[in-house]
C-alpha cells in the first residue's frame, strides 16, 4: 500500500527525470561552453532549456522535502510539538516553492528576453533572489536533517541498525553540504557576459543535490526490498544476547497499533526483554503511558480457567502488556 509520502517521492522522481533530460538537452545545445563559441541559434536553445531546468529544480526540491516530512509524520508522529514542526516545515517548503517558481519564469519581461537579450526587456538581478532561495533551502535542509534525531536514538536498536541510521544521516548531511557548495557558485551567475559558462557549475551541483536528496528520502524504506533479496543480512529475525530470538509471529507478523485511526508501523516499536520470563515485550517510547487491556473474549480464549477439570496438563500463564504512549 502506497502512502502519501510515497506518492510525493514518486512525483519528485518523475520530475527529476524531466530535470535530467532538460539538462542533457541544454548541454547538447552548448551549455557549459563559452557563449561566444556557440552559434546564436544554439545559444538560444540552450538558454531555453536552462530556464526550464530552473523551474523544475524548485518543484523537485519541494516535493522531495515534503515527502521526507510526510514520512516523519507517519513514523514519528508521537508528540504534538514534533507534528507541528513538520507541518510548519511543509508549509514553508510549499510556500517558498510557490513564491519562487513564478519569479523564476518571469525573471525577465518579456520571458523571451531570458534567451534573447537583443529585444527590449527588463530583468531582475539573478544573484540576490537566487541567494535568498538558497538560504531558505539550506535552512530547511538542516532542520529536516536534525528534526528526527532525538526520536530515532531513543529506539533500542542493534549495532547494524545504528550503522544503517548513521549512513542515512551521513547522506542527509552530504545533501546539506552540496546545498552550501551550490550557493558558492551563485556569484558567477550574475555575470551575464558568459551565461552558458558561468551558470554551468550551478547546474552541475543542482543535479547532484536533486538526485542525492531523492536517494536519501528513499533510504529508510529500502530495507524492505533488501530483506527480500538478502534475507540473511536484512531479516528482522535476529539472535539476541541471551541466545533466544524473536518468534516468527513477533518478527514477521504485521502489527497495527492504532492512534486515532492511523496505524503505527512496526518500525516505531521498541522491543524490550522481560528478564524473569525471557519474553520480548513491545512498547512505544517515550510519552504518556496508557495500557491496552485484553478484552473479555480474549480472556476466555487464552485463559486456563476454561480448561477441562479432568485435564491433567500443566498450564503456564504469561502476562504480556503493550504500552501505547502515542497519544500526545
From TrEMBL:
Residue intervals of the Rhodopsin domain: 2-226
InterPro entries xrefs: Rhodopsin_dom_fungi, SAT4-like
A Pfam family this chain is assigned to: Fung_rhodopsin
Membrane-spanning intervals of the chain: 7-27, 47-72, 84-106, 135-154, 163-182
Compartment(s) of residence: Membrane
Membrane topology (UniProt): Multi-pass membrane protein
Location (main, coarse): membrane
Region annotation (Disordered) ranges: 238-259
GO terms under cellular component: membrane
Keyword annotations of the record: Membrane, Transmembrane, Transmembrane helix
Key word Membrane present: yes
PANTHER family (UniProt xref): INTEGRAL MEMBRANE PROTEIN-RELATED (PTHR33048:SF47), PTH11-LIKE INTEGRAL MEMBRANE PROTEIN (AFU_ORTHOLOGUE AFUA_5G11245) (PTHR33048)
Family under the similarity heading: Belongs to the SAT4 family.
Protein name: Integral membrane protein
Provenance organism: Coccidioides immitis H538.4
